Amino acid sequence: MSEHILFLTGKLAEKQLYAILEKMQxxxxxxxHQLGIKVAALMTTDMIARRLKDTFxxxxxxxxxxxxxxxxALSSIFNMPIARGPEELKDLPQYFGHRAHxxxxxxxxVKIFAExxxxxxxxxxxxxKRADYYRKNGADVIDIGCLPSTPFPQLEAIIQxxxxxxxxxxxxxxxxQDLLRGGKAGADYLLSLHESxxxxxxxxxxxxxxxxxxxxxxxxxxxxxxxxxKKNRAFIVDPILDPLxxxxxxxxxxxHEVRKNHPDIEMMMGVGNITExxxxxxxxxxxxxxxxxxxxxxxxxxxxxxxxxxxRSIREADLSRRIxxxxxxxxxxxxxxxxxxxxxxxxxxxxxxxAEITELAGQIKDPSYRIQTSAEGLHIFNRDGLHTxxxxxxxxxxxxxxxDGGHAFYLxxxxxxxxxxxxxxxxxxxxxxxxxxxxxxQVDSTVDLHTFKPVGSTLQKS
Length: 462
Known about the structure:
CATH architecture of the largest domain: Alpha-Beta Barrel
CATH superfamily of the largest domain: Dihydropteroate synthase-like
Shape: elongated
Helix content: 25-40%
Low-confidence stretches: 443-462
Number of strands: 17
Strand content: 15-25%
CATH class of the largest domain: Alpha Beta
Number of domains: 3
Mean pLDDT: 91
Strand order of the largest sheet: 6-7-8-9-10-11-12-13
Radius of gyration: 28 Å
Number of helices: 15
CATH topology of the largest domain: TIM Barrel
Structural class: alpha/beta
């Protein structure tokens, strides 16, 4: 016997909801009930408790996504499961299609080493503040970067302060004495040792990251690996990722070759040589590099946030590693798992066509302006008519808000958001900030950060 679902909605969305459910041809039966209000987004759980007299034999109930109030209490009143629907009515098929594909993003395998590159030149308090920021964004290890020919008298004090705050610490230097001091001060990892400096590993307990004597010299890396294996010491291997046009493709080949020769050793990739040294948005770079790490079972990366354009790299790497692990575990492509890496575009930016918006505009009987976007441009409408343009300034003379500064300001902000969304191919929802994923500090309230599933939306925006 199929499940029967009760959908609650408002007058403006009722016709569209019927049409979408018919087109879905769902494997459940349903009842659509219009609760006697015009705009579904204005519905509250208290209103539902007062007005809903019949649940029509439903097994569960779906509410408009922006329905406010206590869903658990409402569920107790009607003795059935109750949930909010998707952001937009047009997303209902996707909402049901993904119910069987909920991805747990609370797990990851790749450890992120976040480097503080200028540690010798800043205070201990500044290092601790930066380390805390990196940890909040996903870093597992704080890497203390030394600078060539730069004195570092506070090295030991910094490492000890970090350890006291519960951080895992690595020391990063080309100078043997810096590495030795860092290891003796309690660093957990040494970046990096090569064939000529392996003696440092005998002096300290820290886990060394092994690199070739020269970037292309895999033979020296093989010898270093052999020495550490004979000593039965833990180690991590980094064949070195080179920048684009300076050996990048060949360096990827090196990673593949080392993994082929050593299926079980731990490996590291320094992703900063791509994210920092390529002037392009870093989210896609991190996704691709973490995808390579996933394929080659590289479980450590060294990441940096030195350049302004790379200022979210740690957060992007954190989400990327979670997405890639989920895709790998489910044997699926890294699609439709979490939208946080799609800062500039969206998979479905325009849920409604111009024809559908025109039909909706014809039903409006009040003076409040609604703003929507379609592939054709920006649309603003109320009972007095529908206006369309691709430039918000072209709309201003038609809105007649010259004498109402507050209203004009509000419409200006919303139309500016709509224009940006239309230009980029992003989803615009009136009265909501644009969602930039993990590219900003803004919290994404549309998805659970560890499990990708819709957590609240509306069936029709007022």
